[in-house]
Task: inverse folding
């Protein structure tokens, strides 16, 4: 449940005897009483059950010691940041880990779960160890993978773990489209406790950010498998509004908005050359200083609204589909950034023709905010130019920049292509190739309580005919 997909296998009595005769049993009686059945079925917002004093304490301490000595790999993408045992735990031959696996996937345990939940299980093993340190998290998701029927976590956290340390398992309410709308229940880790829940179209959950500086959230987690269930199709959002090139407002007063250094022909040729070679560029001090300061001061007082669903995005904005709420100088900036004057500038420095563009969006990236690759996923099947204008940015210390999140990331199916650290009053231009995905990396609460403000938009473009084919994400070289 609290880990990405790992290789799973069937129970093998030959290899699982590596426990070398360790004699132990569950501390919990594992009797499916009517009380436990009722607690599970009445769990909100979806069926779950939390059991304490699960295994014999000294045995579990030995399991944790073995787990800590395991090989770990860093897991880091749009959805999560934490460490996981290498190759899961299926292949571990450490006696105590082998015994724990044997117990968790024993017939006794699976029969108990079936009696409590009414879900028939097979003997597929799907198990790994995880450790979350300060700032680590696993964002909202539903565990949707064929055959998963029950998710579980066995907590190995320090015995003094408390709510201030974070790392809770948060369960979400879902709407009629099975999209998660809000957090309903937070379950905090407790030493030697075992939680399980039914995997379903509405079993949205997350591991909240770990806030403790000194404590580590260790756990063993995985899934019990059974007959696959049918899932409804993923909810399809209505398309974002599009502005056609011919319908744009005329604004030729670019010198009132754009730093004059970027308006000279010589500098625009240099920008064009760099963008053609690198497929992206950041233009520092982009806005005229007086305009930038006025906008930065006006942004916090705008009428910000939160936007989801949380399995796609979580941040504040001033309107995404309609009912845009910008006022004053902030509205004037948006009008400029969607005007012919600004589009002409983009066309000049990117050697491109803009056919259409989005309506654009101001964002307030609070600590705890993020977007996942499913955000704007309709744009993945075509290329275009993205702009991100960073407006108001917290003061980071240089030692925290790489870990404090809040940056926009571009990646293909195999690797990260580009990460943009927010810099105030900087316009980033990014060529996004077909199949390229983007997201805003989770912005931890651990490092700051100040938000990032930016404006982002996407341009549907065609490049000048240079006789070259687009390959490997390169912008055609028109020099």
Result:
């Amino acid at each position: 449940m609290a880990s990405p997909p790992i290789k799973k296998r069937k129970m093998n009595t030959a290899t699982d005897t590596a426990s070398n005769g360790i004699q132990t049993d569950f501390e919990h009686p594992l009797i499916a009483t009517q009380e436990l059945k009722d607690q599970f079925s009445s769990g909100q917002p979806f069926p779950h059950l939390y059991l304490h004093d699960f295994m014999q304490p000294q045995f579990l301490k030995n399991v944790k010691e073995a787990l800590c000595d395991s090989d770990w790999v860093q897991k880091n993408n749009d959805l999560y940041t934490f460490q996981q045992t290498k190759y899961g735990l299926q292949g571990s031959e450490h006696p105590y880990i082998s015994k724990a696996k044997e117990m968790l996937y024993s017939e006794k345990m699976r029969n108990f779960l079936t009696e409590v939940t009414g879900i028939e299980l097979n003997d597929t093993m799907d198990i790994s160890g995880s450790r979350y340190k300060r700032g680590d998290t696993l964002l909202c998701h539903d565990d949707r993978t064929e055959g998963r029927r029950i998710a579980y976590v066995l907590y190995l956290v320090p015995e003094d773990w408390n709510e201030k340390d974070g790392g809770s398992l948060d369960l979400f309410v879902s709407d009629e489209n099975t999209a998660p709308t809000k957090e309903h229940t937070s379950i905090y880790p407790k030493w030697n406790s075992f939680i399980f829940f039914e995997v379903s179209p509405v079993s949205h959950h997350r591991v909240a950010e770990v806030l403790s500086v000194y404590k580590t959230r260790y756990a063993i987690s995985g899934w019990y498998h059974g007959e696959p269930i049918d899932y409804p199709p993923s909810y399809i959002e209505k398309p974002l509004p599009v502005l056609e090139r011919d319908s744009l407002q005329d604004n030729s007063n670019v010198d009132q908005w754009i730093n004059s250094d970027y308006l000279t022909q010589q500098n625009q040729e240099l920008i064009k050359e760099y963008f053609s070679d690198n497929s992206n560029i950041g233009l520092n001090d982009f806005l005229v200083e007086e305009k930038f300061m006025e906008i930065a001061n006006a942004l916090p007082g705008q009428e910000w609204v939160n936007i989801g669903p949380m399995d796609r995005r979580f941040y504040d904005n001033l309107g995404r589909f309609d009912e845009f709420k910008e006022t004053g100088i902030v509205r004037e900036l948006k009008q400029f950034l969607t005007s012919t004057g600004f589009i002409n500038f983009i066309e000049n420095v990117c050697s491109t023709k803009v056919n259409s563009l989005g309506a654009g969006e101001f964002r307030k990236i609070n600590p705890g905010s993020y977007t996942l690759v499913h955000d704007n996923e309709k744009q993945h099947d075509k290329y275009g130019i993205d702009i991100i204008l960073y407006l108001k940015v917290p003061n980071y210390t240089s030692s925290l920049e790489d870990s404090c999140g809040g940056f926009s990331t571009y990646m293909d199916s195999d690797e990260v292509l580009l990460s943009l650290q927010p810099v105030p009053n900087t316009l980033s231009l990014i060529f996004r190739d077909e199949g390229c995905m983007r997201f805003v990396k989770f912005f931890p609460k651990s490092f700051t309580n100040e938000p990032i403000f930016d404006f982002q938009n996407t341009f549907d473009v065609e490049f000048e005919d240079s006789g070259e084919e687009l390959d490997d994400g390169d912008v055609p070289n028109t020099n």
In short: The radius of gyration is 26 Å. DSSP finds eight helices and 26 strands in the chain. The helical segments are 34-41, 57-68, 95-104, 107-117, 265-278, 289-298, 328-337, 340-350. The CA atoms of residues 41 and 47 lie 5 Å apart.
